[in-house]
Amino acid sequence: MRKKIIAGNWKMNYTPKETKAFIDAIKDKVSGTPHEVVFCVPYVDLATALEAVKGTDIKIGAQNIHQEDKGAFTGEISADMLVEIGVTHVVIGHSERRQYFGETDLGVNAKAKKSLAKGLVPIICVGESLDQRKQGVTIDIVRLQTRIAFLDIPEGDAKKCVVAYEPIWAIGTGLTASSDQAEEACKAIRDVLGEIYGTAVSDEIRIQYGGSVTASNASELFKMPDIDGGLVGGASLKPDFEKIVNF
Ligand code: PEP
What we know:
This protein is of the alpha/beta class. The protein has one domain: TIM Barrel (Alpha-Beta Barrel). The chain has helices spanning 16-30, 46-52, 79-85, 95-101, 105-117, 130-134, 138-149, 155-158, 179-197, 199-202, 218-222, 241-245, and strands at 5-9, 36-40, 59-62, 89-92, 121-126, 162-165, 206-210, 229-232. Helix 7 (138-149) crosses helix 9 (179-197). The relative contact order is 0.15. The site of phosphoenolpyruvate has 14 residues, from strand 8.
């Protein structure tokens, strides 16, 4: 049985003060659940968030790392920096990073490997654009992105990864993939992981759905056989996030 993982991707929202206020208000309702709950917050909010969740089982994640250990990479943050302060998860290859910051499939692979080497759980995002869905290549795209993301990752590490299937057309748009569309893509991801590692391993890897998850569609999505929770953007900034976690 895979433990569901429900992660909030706050993107570029909430100052440290707002972070404390939000987490203080919601933490009792989203902790002690059967699921793993993670808040992926902006870098400057990490210390506040870590302090605010102390004494609960809520985990704190970052939204990106650099693939190198250290050096002349102005403006970047390393895995060691995150681990030292208590961060446990990191979002890798979010479509906004691919779209606005030029992240590539091979870069995603490098960041996933660095996260694993440093003990961070990578939440690896894959997903097709609206054009790609219309062209009928959704499954080819998610299979390819998944294959490249997992290049040279040994099976012991692969099991620690989380994959987030996030159709780009559903992110922040209010459009949600139907549970059948989401399941089809998540199953395709599990199938390709099975081809790489065998089904014993792919059956252990958690695959989330992300894209306009709300309190009203979470339970239908999360009950699908290959969907092990969600990566939630806008709705993770609202009190209703509690309803998504307790779907
Ligand atoms: C996301 O940021 O990963 C996301 C899925 O956003 P939203 O839930 O707002 O669509």
